[in-house]
Amino acid sequence: MDSPTNELQQLQAQIANLKSELSDYQSQVSELKKQKLQLQQTLKLTEEKLHATLDGTGLCLWEQDIPSGILTMYNQEWGALLGYTLEERPAHIDSWKSHLHPDDKDWVIKAFYDHVEGKENVYRAVHRMLHKDGSVSWVSDRGRIIEFTENGQPKRIMGTHTDITQEKRYEQELARLAHYDPLTNLLNRNALKSHYQKNFKHPQAKGALIFIDLDGFKGINDKAGHRIGDLLLIHVANTISQTAKNLLGAGQHAIARIGGDEFVILTTVHQAEILTPFANTLLQQFNHPTTIEQHKAQIGLSIGVCAFSAPTAFSHAYEQADKAMYQVKQQGKHDVAFVSLL
């Protein structure tokens, strides 16, 4: 049997061991706290670098919990791309759906659920979304299921959401320049020819090609300068467009600027009783000088009209209207001549 002295010594030894173990444990906790702080700092720095990099590209990382529909946006606040705060639009799939462009909504949602349901290997869509200010934003979306439940049901999906609005606007502007005259915003020759081939291919199709050349434009352009000349061309284009809308009917015609001072109208109207008043009204519009920024500009219109029926080729109708216009030029200008291929 141990003496009280021995028991006390054993107890003191146990206490010393416990103190030592506690000291080691505290050291380990301190080291773990230090490592945790370092990891947090590293994570924060990494996230800052990631956000700075992604924000500069318009790329947004997102993750969705599929059962709840809750969205997590990793490098941008939810709704920021569309002008909303978190309070205005919660980060949820229903908010995303509600801001899809009406013309894209059905097929985009289908593409999303085709992947969620395993019909497609990846979700991918380039589509439009509605901004808070009413404008349209273009985005490129990609996503993939990254986690399933124990029952094999999709649980989480992660992807990227890229704002490509500027790229789309650039593409649209290039397309516009490929089909439209940049000064007057009328069609160019190629677009006019495409319009002809699309709208006058039916065997029973009839119409008219109206060729308009300005009289006296070169002298005004040389004397007053190209700026005044450009403004005059815009004025003529607007006058032709408005007169065509009033007398030929909206949607019944296409108008192009095909040269410096040459304009062409393609219309489904082929009746002389309509085309004659239209041409005469245009002529009357320029019977008197036009004032452009205090510059008085007197121009005339030499107009050639070719009425045609399918299958007349565009080049043939164009040539006949051009010849009719030159007859006007030779006979004194500022008038109209008709030719019929009906």
UniProtKB/TrEMBL annotation:
The keyword Lyase does not apply. Its EC number is 2.7.7.65. One of its GO terms (molecular function) is diguanylate cyclase activity. PROSITE patterns: GGDEF, PAC. Residues 123-176 form the PAC domain. It comes from the Bacteria. It is an enzyme of class 2 (transferase). Residues 1-49 form a coiled coil. CDD domains: GGDEF (cd01949), PAS (cd00130). Residues 205-341 form the GGDEF domain. Keywords: Coiled coil, Nucleotidyltransferase, Transferase. NCBIfam families: GGDEF, sensory_box. This is Diguanylate cyclase.
